[in-house]
Amino acid sequence: FSDFAFEARIAAQSLADSLGGLARPTLRLGVTGLSRSGKTVFITALVHALLRGARLPVFRAYAQGRIRKVTLEHQPDDAVPRFAYEEHLAALSGPDRRWPESTSRIAELRVVIEYESATSWRSGPRTLTLDIVDYPGEWLLDLSLLDKSYAEWAAEAVAACRSPGRLEGSQPFLDALAALDPFKPAGEDAARRLSELFRQALKAARVEPLSFSALPPGRFLMPGDLEGSPALTFSPLDLPPGAEPPAGSLAATMARRYEAYRSHVVRPFFRDHFARLDRQIVLVDAMAALNAGPAAVSDLEKALDDVLLSFRTGRNTMLSSLLSPRIDRVLFAATKADHLHHTSHDRLEKVLALLVDRARRRAEGLGARADVVAIASIRATREAQVRQGRDELAAIVGTPLAGEVIGGERFDGTAEAAVFPGELPEDAAKALAEAGVADYGLRFVRFRPPSVATGPDGQAGVLPHIRLDRTLEYLLGDRLT
Ligand code: GDP
To answer: How far, in Å, is the centroid of ligand 1 from the Cα of 102?
Structure first.
């Protein structure tokens, strides 16, 4: 359908949202980040802190005792799965203390916050409805496909497969391409085989342990509900520039499926979810990237840049930008800061600030505020001083996951260990430049979630965190005054 119709639908949706918002102030908060960046843990911790309380001195509405009541309500969008908060919390706080199942598709949760206004407390309680929308960051990369024809995308994707870093993993796909004539008719089997080989090439391009690919289509690796669906059986082809594929040819079939993917997958996601967000937090596992080396760092930087580019694509549509002054704050958060001693938390923030510098300026150019923070949604470690010979060394202590090996010792998931976490350098540029080369001692031990006391009602009590309160203040604070 036409761009105008598409924009008109976005505009109608945002008008409906605004009218609904007049009756009841609502904030739609997007939580995204690449696979394993910590989205599920973050949302679970945030909701738990609101529902059950936590130590949140910087979150003013809470610290001033103005939050009266927080409840979970039915979400507005019936077609979207609910974020499985209770299940995730049970995994974290149950007897075997497991990290919850990670995000693989979109999910939503509605939290209603009743609060006392800071300025006019006599006027009685007010209500803010917070709709949290959790979605894989990989899907944002797809927004770049909105204004690319099949031929343009295919040329780019094939060139990327041939680039030095990806050539080896893409070879089976490239060999299959070379053996086919794209202008001859081809059966379903050939299309399916090619798309599977292309998916394997994307998969091979992922830089462990970040496990994402900076190449769209996002659903090839993070299919969500489209797992095994025919919407994903296409691939790029090696086409001569300007060629017109004859009807019924393999190239025509692939182009048609690409169009179907754009109109049935990418556009609806953009229109129904992304374009309706008011605020966005982007979670980043910066330490995993630093540990993995320069390729991982530059891939991460590129992916973050693309993610931010999608915010602009989101606003470029003229009608929608006139009618919906959407996303006004973006927060980039480096997660899992509990793997570092607190002296390095500010340094981790600086590293992230540098990584997202371009992206951040772009967001600000669009009239959105952007900031960075280093957090641990759930703190799995505590700090301690450990004596080694004459020296007192700063260590972090936690329970390593079963199977983790530290200094030759294999852990079974029950014993605690003290780890010297190492330090990030003061100079963030140096940290990035030396990623994977210098040993900052960022040893990556994975810890189990902390054990938490249960309240009198049998539910998990307060969860420890790092800077979750600062995050809440930035994302919600001004809406609770
Ligand atoms: P998602 O794919 O973005 O939903 O990522 P998850 O929220 O499932 O997190 C992936 C993994 O990162 C978890 O299984 C944990 O091992 C780890 N993780 C996430 N958040 C934290 C945190 O705050 N502290 C620690 N120590 N580990 C975390």
So the answer is: 8
